[in-house]
Amino acid sequence: MSDIVATNQTILVVGGGISGMTAALEAAEVGKQVIVIEKTPSVGGRVTKLYKYFPKLCFPTCGQEINQRRMAANRNITVLTMAEVTELSGEAGNYSATVKISPRYVNDNCTACGACAEVVESEFDDEHNYNMSKRKGAYLPHNLAMPKRYVIDPALIGTDEATKAKEACPFNAIDLDMQEETIELKAGAVVWATGWRPFDANKIQPYGYDRFDNVITSVEFERMMDPFGPTGGKLVRPSDGKEAKNVAFIQCAGSRDRNYLRHCSRICCMASLKQSTYVTEKYGDEANVSIYYIDIRAIDRFEDFYQKVQDNENVTFIKSKVANIVENHENNNPVLKGVNTEGYHRYENEHDLVVLAVGMEPSVAKDEFPIELKLNDEGFIENDEANGGVFAAGCSADALDVNRAVQSATASALRAIQVVNRVAQAEG
Amino acid sequence: MSDLNTSMVEKYRNNFLKEVEAHVEEGEWVKMCMQCGVCSGSCPLGPHWEHPPQELFMMIRAGKREEVLSSESMWMCTSCYNCIVRCPRELPITHIMHGLAHYATRLGIEPKGQPTRQFAQLFWDNLAKNGRVNELWLGVNLYFMNGLVEGIKVAMGMAGIGLGMLKAGRLSLKELVGGHTVKDKKGFKAMIKKAQELEAARVDK
Fold it and tell me: What is the CATH number of domain A199-360?
């Protein structure tokens, strides 16, 4: 990795999700040198796990392909996958970062032919599917993975299977002696785009995510729609694999709640409205969707989408924060209890499947940042002069949908460009 | 209606929320309710309330003074604290319920003959006498709350348990005459008196 050239005019982008990719592309396409540090084996982040975008209901794969082409075509971008920034110090115009690169055990001879995966039998939880399914010990993270190279799970190292995989590779791409590397990089500005993670639904005790098979999260529900996903594109109940036609969505699962996340996660209302169309897409008039909400926050032009869903006779809106969930032991149906505040009607509603519209929290906890940054109470990075040349992009800055994350990333790219331009002027 | 009630009606004409904020314990939280309904859904006695907490909060904001203060609803609260634990805005709902009940009592417009209220009064009178609860007299008073005949019936029904408690030393017949007290009864009475003065000053302000 000694061939990486980084100077005080380089922009370091931490995180290779949609925000990081956008910031990197915007900066690189005006001629700046950019290094992208991505923790997982491929770029794309959470967007690659989505079935459709709201409000147009188009497929994220489309925009993802365009971004990947732009990245592949641009010589100014260097992408380091399986890499993490462990230390960061300095000031605007002069940062140095320590980056730890974990071994992939596959070099760039790899053509993603899949011969190694055929001989490997060990299976592990598939992170791409939120551990709802298994993947092989030699695997491609997902179909759109970039770089399109396989990964050998570190658990395989030292076993016969690893040797078998190595022997099976026709291109000599597997290098089992790869070691963890630590490199030092210079940078003039940093775009911090580490994004978000779904709030841990286990913490919402009354909803029983940890106890009931048929209570799942919105991100898991999203994976079910993927034809290559854990259920092969079927909307089914985890307990018995039966079709889930009567589906309940619980809004603000973790958000706007001083016991969990205090902020409004902003995406969950639209996500559930979008996901309600998945149920009608699969089951037509047999679909029966209930959305339990405090208030629907479909901001500005999303109102049209909200009205369209409201007009659907198969979707019911119930103004209520669900008090708790119990399970009907005969059929494993979750039973939702609470009070509909429109008329104060007490209900006990049984559904096939319950989807918790979980909130967004920053994927880096407050005390885990390698450099001191000004954060707000929720742990998102503030746009503050005290942060020097470190600029937050996308969900590191706030709970944002993809559209707004991209806007935020473009803005932070411009801020970073200004910093490295100043350095360039000073250095002549 | 008491004089206090009349003066409060005069003072807070058309703004019951302000009245609650000023005079009800933890009343300043009422405006924070966002009407999600999780308290009502979580209340184990929920189906027996005429107006669950979040409805009471809305009624306060809507200025339904009479309906709220004369309601039996907040007297149904058993202080299980389920609502406080689940409230997304951390409203001290249990305390507000007791605050409302207490304020209604102070104004003299609480529902008459409400059993929870009667028991609370019995308990207080009993405790305030010696600084300790005299369980024997509390039981006796409770049994005869609804008249002599009803009282004898209840007492007969509970006789087995009473004898068992006597045997196990959980109940003493000595309590019938005098009963146990706090060490410094005079000090205790002075403390209660002062607390009542402070409370009165707060409510009357």
Answer: 3.50.50.60
